[in-house]
Amino acid sequence: MLRELAERAVRQVRSVDLVGRLGGEEFVVVMPETSLAGAVVVAERFRVAVAEEPFIPQGQSEKLPVTGQRRHRGDREGPDTIDTLLKRADDALYAASMPVATASSR
Questions:
Q1: Cβ distance 50 to 32 under 8 Å?
Q2: Checking CA distances to 24, which of 66, 68, 69, 75 falls within 20 to 30 Å?
């Protein structure tokens, strides 16, 4: 299933972009010379590509729906190093995995 997810990601980016598995179920996409607005468009395209077509795990016949979330933070302080960039991405992924409060749950 991770291979199929990676293939779907690669189909959504340019040939100069790099898609990699960071760990577990986390993927990172390096998009040189891309604005935040451009990256958001690609992230949404990838999210839709994942959600539109259920996955069929190897050796099974039942389709498994998969959903995802995307988050970004635009409130950076100073330039990012690879370590700070990956830390911010990891923090955003953790925040995205937390339940979102709804009006009915308040």
A1: no
A2: 75
**27 in helix, strand or coil?**
strand
Dist. CA 42–CA 14, nearest whole Å: 10
pTM over 0.85: no
Integer-rounded Cα Rg, in Å, for the chain is: 15
CA distance 8 to 42: 12
Q: Which residues are catalytic?
A: 25
**Kind of pairing between the strands at 26-30 and 18-23:** antiparallel
Q: Which stretch of DSSP H or E encloses residue 30? A: strand 26-30
Which amino acid appears at position 47 of this protein? R
For the stretch 16-51, pLDDT in tens is: 998 888 777 777 888 888 888 888 898 888 888 888
